């Protein structure tokens, strides 16, 4: 069976993106969130047709939100309020712009760590004060710690599903979080970019359906490997539409017309491609579990409920205060993300990207085990 991951390593190494140009050719890159896939054929066709027709002007209308709403209803049973959505250039820019409406410079914004490193960088660049609240040992939201942090906070930037742990926040957790936030007059902004990448039976529930005053950001970029074709949509909860409407109109000027063409095609015609990709990612997760149990039992991990990352606890494989990511790069020619970049709780951890072929994964695991075993 042909899958989106049937791309020869030599062809991958010819790519010009960050993943394949950061390190020397002898290093196997399994770090940044790029998938080793061929593009969905409907996306290729739609982009080609738009370019051939010279349809390269400015984005207009609600076609992105309409396509996303169809996808969200089918995949998540979520009725997206198309008329109240707003287009943004990408998820992180959208987060900053939404928080610009909900906060003032110097306000405290809570994040839950370990978490996607640009959260801190973007928030600080926007003049906001970042307050990090660790997840529990089980990777869940620590509601007591959040209750304390919300006393002096104005907003919370939620990562849902959580990157790098792959945790899916449940409807009950989100409802409890919403109650805390309402009590403290804290606004919730939810980065939900990995929502289509659910790996098990646990469903994805948007924060906006459990928290009426929440605003969520979505994009096809992660699930369909379209980071180079930028577009995203902001979706308000039932009580957040007026706030989202206050976002400046010029924010939408940064949306890529060709990005919208690509993402709409992915949402409307890429379902079979996504299902095949998820099947391979699930198989890769199982392979990691077997390999660690058999060949590197000192490593620990919890298989992700979503995303395509393995968040590996390698504290039993290296001396204290040694970053295993550096060891793997210097001694194993394997590039993974360093845990501490996701927060202090990441010391001794690494994030490994599993969105690749079984052959590349096997080579990466051989390098991991050969270096630390």
Give the helices and strands, then pairings.
Layout: H1 9-13, H2 18-21, E1 28-29, H3 41-52, H4 63-76, E2 86-88, H5 91-102, E3 108-113, H6 118-125, E4 129-134, H7 143-149, E5 155-159, H8 171-184, E6 187-191, H9 207-210, E7 215-218, E8 232-236, H10 241-245, H11 257-269, H12 271-295, E9 309-313, H13 324-332, E10 334-335, E11 337-338, E12 349-353, H14 358-372
Parallel strand pairs: 1-10, 3-4, 3-5, 5-6, 6-7
Antiparallel strand pairs: 2-8, 7-8, 9-12, 11-12
Helix pairs in contact: 3-11, 4-11, 12-14, 13-14
Structure description:
- This protein has 373 residues and is α/β, with parallel strands linked by helices.
- 39% of the residues lie in helices and 13% in strands.
- The chain contains 14 helices and 12 strands.
- The protein has helices at residues 9-13, 18-21, 41-52, 63-76, 91-102, 118-125, 143-149, 171-184, 207-210, 241-245, 257-269, 271-295, 324-332, 358-372; strands at 28-29, 86-88, 108-113, 129-134, 155-159, 187-191, 215-218, 232-236, 309-313, 334-335, 337-338, 349-353.
- The strands form 3 sheets. The chain has a 7-stranded mixed beta sheet with strand order 2-8-7-6-5-3-4, with helices on both faces. A 3-stranded antiparallel beta sheet has the order 9-12-11, covered by helices on one side. The chain has a two-stranded parallel ribbon with strand order 1-10.
- Helix 9 links the parallel strand 6 and strand 7 (215-218).
- The longest helix is centred in the C-terminal third of the chain and has 25 residues, at 271-295.
- The radius of gyration is 20 Å and the shape is globular.
- Its cofactor is pyridoxal 5'-phosphate.
């Amino acid at each position: 069976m042909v899958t989106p991951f049937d791309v020869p390593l030599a062809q991958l190494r010819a790519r010009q993106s960050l993943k394949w140009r950061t390190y020397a050719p002898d290093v196997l890159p399994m770090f940044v969130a790029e998938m080793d896939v061929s593009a969905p054929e409907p996306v290729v066709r739609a982009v080609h047709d738009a370019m051939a027709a010279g349809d390269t002007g400015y984005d207009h209308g609600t076609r992105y939100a309409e396509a996303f709403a169809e996808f969200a209803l089918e995949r998540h049973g979520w009725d997206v309020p198309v008329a109240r959505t707003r287009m943004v250039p990408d998820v992180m820019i959208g987060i900053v712009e939404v928080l610009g409406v909900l906060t003032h410079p110097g306000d405290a914004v809570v994040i839950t760590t370990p978490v996607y490193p640009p959260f801190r960088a973007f928030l600080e660049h926007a003049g906001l004060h970042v307050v990090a609240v660790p997840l529990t040992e089980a990777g869940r939201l620590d509601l007591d710690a959040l209750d304390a942090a919300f006393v002096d906070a104005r907003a919370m930037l939620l990562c849902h599903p959580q990157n790098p742990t792959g945790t899916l926040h449940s409807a009950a957790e989100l409802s409890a979080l919403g109650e805390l936030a309402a009590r403290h007059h804290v606004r919730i902004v939810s980065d939900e970019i990995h929502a289509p990448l659910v790996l098990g039976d646990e469903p994805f529930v948007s924060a906006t359906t459990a928290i009426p005053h929440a605003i969520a950001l979505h994009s096809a970029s992660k699930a369909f490997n379209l980071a180079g074709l930028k577009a995203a949509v902001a979706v308000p909860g039932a009580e957040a539409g007026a706030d989202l409407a206050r976002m400046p109109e010029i924010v939408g000027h940064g949306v890529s017309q060709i990005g919208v063409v690509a993402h709409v095609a992915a949402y409307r015609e890429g379902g079979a491609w996504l299902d095949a990709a998820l099947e391979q990612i699930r198989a890769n997760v199982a392979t990691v579990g077997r390999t660690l149990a058999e060949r590197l039992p000192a490593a620990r991990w919890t298989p992700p409920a979503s995303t395509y990352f393995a968040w590996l606890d390698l504290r039993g494989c290296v001396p204290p205060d040694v970053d295993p990511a550096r060891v793997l790069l210097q001694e194993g020619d394997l590039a993974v993300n360093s845990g501490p970049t996701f927060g202090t709780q990441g010391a001794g951890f690494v994030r490994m990207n599993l969105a690749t072929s079984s052959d590349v994964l096997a080579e990466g695991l051989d390098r991991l085990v050969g270096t630390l075993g």
